[in-house]
Design brief:
This protein has about 120 residues and is mostly beta strands. Helices cover about 0% and strands about 65% of the residues.
Length: about 120
């Protein structure tokens, strides 16, 4: 019931910047948190950053000080500002929405976008 569409990926030189966007639609009222994950070739998907509905943020150690997650509630959109990009940031970035729904009890469900490729050249 939640659809996520990412945009903003591309090719950038090391030290450059990109801003990823994730627009949510559907049962957006039930979204508890949104975030960004990434998966590099041969590696497991990892958390990059999350932001809860009340504004609390969490970042992977590898991106602290370089990436900033933010939201625009009016547009139902979450952004990931990526500065000082490094080659090791190269990955497919996926938008995530965590939905909190009452079904006999409060439960969480995760929805994922299609992914957007970020390639950083050194």
């Amino acid at each position: 019931q939640v659809q996520l569409v990412e945009s903003g990926g591309g090719l950038v030189q090391a030290g450059g910047s990109l801003r990823l966007s994730c627009a949510a639609s559907g049962s957006i009222f039930s979204i508890n948190a949104m975030g960004w994950y990434r998966q590099a070739p041969g590696k497991e998907r990892e958390l990059v950053a999350t932001i809860t509905s009340d504004g609390n943020t969490n970042y992977a150690d590898s991106v602290k000080g370089r990436f900033t997650i933010s939201r625009d509630n009016a547009k139902n959109t979450v952004y990931l500002q990526m500065n000082s990009l490094k080659a090791e940031d190269t990955a497919v970035y996926y938008c995530n929405a965590r939905v909190k729904i009452y079904t006999n009890r409060w439960q969480y469900f995760n929805y994922w976008g299609q992914g957007t490729q970020v390639t950083v050249s050194s």
